[in-house]
Design goal:
alpha+beta
Length: 151
Amino acid sequence: MVRRMFRMETGVDKERRDLLRKRLWDTNTQASPVLRALRGTPGEHGVPLHVWVLDAEGTLAGGLVGHTWATWLHVTYLWVDDRFRGAGLGSRLLASAETTARTEHGCRGSRLETWDFQAPEFYRRHGYDVVCVIPDYPPGVTEYTMTKRLG
């Protein structure tokens, strides 16, 4: 039996981080035919998808920030100014992003994360299903990962 000695370190190291990312990328590419097929194609990298709503003065009233990748829309942020909540802006932002993702990027699904005090019921009303629940993340809060099949 061969015994090896290792030294473990902590601390931020951008060079090692980049090396680790490259090695993981290479390992994943070798292990997954789906990822291998994406490499070198336009679909290899995520494409930003942003939708904005401005009020009559041109001030930000709401927005959705996400990206598309591998036939999925990932909604990162969706926000509507308190003054305009209940007017359907959130629904319009989400529908616009989903339509753009489906028609312009070939997306077949959408995913997002939301906390219990944010909008899980809003997303359920728009056809999203909970696929993961992480209680106490952060402490006292529940995080939901939700997905939806795009028609």
